[in-house]
Amino acid sequence: MNIAVLEDDIDQQAFISACLRPDGHKFTMMEHASEIKRSLKLEPFDLLILDWHLPDASGMEVLTHLRLAHNWKQPILFITADHQPGDVVMALEYGADDFLHKPLNPDELRARVKALGRRMVHVENSEIFTLGSYSLCCRKREVTIDGCLVKLTEREYQLVNLFLNRPGQLLSRKFLMELVWGMQGDVQTRTLDTHISRLRRKLGFDGTYGFRLRSIYQYGYRLEEVSKTSPMGSGDTK
Questions:
Q1: Are residues 179 and 99 part of one domain?
Q2: Domain boundary, last residue among 51, 86, 119
Q3: Which of 75, 92, 119 is the C-terminal boundary of a domain?
Q4: pTM of the full predicted structure?
Q5: What is the pLDDT of residues 111-131, one digit of tens each?
Q6: Mode of pairing for the β-strands spanning 47-51 and 2-6
């Protein structure tokens, strides 16, 4: 695999390389978050090993940027020296595929990378992702329904991107506000609700095309396939 390693500790870079190189992997070592953004334009990577703390950004910021702005679908393995409660849950919720604590165990690192390699799916930036009647073109940042283009604002597109790529997954209000608007913490705003209302109207997320964007009371939203949920009109979960 062609592996990108975003880790500002040179010794850790050397350790990761020494552990994984015998398996025939190729590496691109980077110390700053800005480097990964440039590198993605130059070559495709099969896997990113990402440190939680970086000089110019947090690993979480890099993770959300890659998943949302770049729609990058390749596996991301998070590593961190911290053992804070909730780190694993947070990383996985925001799009990480696996998580390891430092100091890294060589055998476990190799095993995790091999497992991610088996799950790896090669995706081009110009890929058209399809879910039922909906198609999302990552390169053009467009959404169509049965081939008909739907006019969306940039934030509407980002929200649709999140929902279409996570059907059936409950996305919290906090998660959506942080990724799309960059707002931290429990922000009280009707902005998200307004955008959701527009998406339901523009994209027929009322079950018209087989999917319903459902409100989960006081928590968030979930895109559900109508045929696998309760009948329409039964109301939101309270």
A1: no
A2: 119
A3: 119
A4: 0.55
A5: 999 888 876 644 444 478 889
A6: parallel
